Protein: DNA mismatch repair protein MSH3
Amino acid sequence: MGKPKQQVISRFFSPKPPPPPPPSKQNSQTPPPPPQPKASPKITSTVSFSPSTTFSKRARPHSQNLTSSTKRSKPSLHEKLVSKLLDPSDSPSSLSSPKPSSQNPKYTPLEQQVLELKSKYPDVLLMVEVGYRYRFFGQDADAAARVLGIVAHPDHNFVTASVPTFRLNFYVRRLVGAGFKVGVIKQTETAAIKLHGSNRLGPFSRGLSALYTRSTLEAADDMGGGEEEGLLGSGGNYLLCVAEKCAVAEDMGSGVEGCFDVKIGMVAVEISTGEIIHGEFNDDMMRSGLEAVFLSLSPVEILVGDSVSAPTEKVFICSCLKLG
Structure:
């Protein structure tokens, strides 16, 4: 079949011409002139009887523009998402340390006190009394939040967390049971004394009032009531102090460094009951006597002298690993 011809829309909607006037007698022999057709309106579009071809022609440029605009927009959205996820300012690790806002951060008076106390007791987890709460700062706040199940949040230059003062014994026991050495920093002056003193414009003076470890916790007057909670072991909580001295010459003419046969002195104290065990003995290269002392007493804390030999230090390390 041949392609259907296109028809002009105006052909179907153009007004009909008026009927010709009746012939006059004078001009009966000559036919009247044909009427002048009116000017057809301007054609703006045409209709095709093959809709599939027309639709494909019209839809093709639109779809091309749509796909091209989509392709252009995807990389920009992807780049924005990647830059937001990789932004170091939103990293959680930045909350566990002082904010790196400037080279010389401006500390509050309380933060300056905390820095001074932390420099004096670097290996102690500090609980600082501030009003009716004990606050943790910096890495201490992260450790307390992990052990106690509390929330740590950034405040000024440090991450901080806090617990109420009337629950001090419970939280200290939890932290000591997790293996931390806990120091309690209390306010050494009241608001009335501070108001009439020379320090009325500065922060409250604070100092270390108590230091708790696994061996000294049961001896504290204000730390009672922990055995029923199962936070510490049910056995003895011995504090063991060990020192050694070479029993023979260091060289013995064999050219081997270190001391092999030593004399070991030890003192073990159970602070909660006041029991004291002390003695000294000669030990061999394997330190079998020292190992027997550790197995019989199971100390929870060990104090070591300034310098010990490598075999003795090895026994200490193995015992600490067993204690956890």
Summary: The chain has a mean pLDDT of 74. The beta strands are 125-130, 133-137, 153-155, 158-164, 182-187, 206-212, 238-246, 262-270, 275-283, 301-304. Residues 51-85 form the longest helix (35 residues). The CA atoms of residues 12 and 40 lie 11 Å apart.
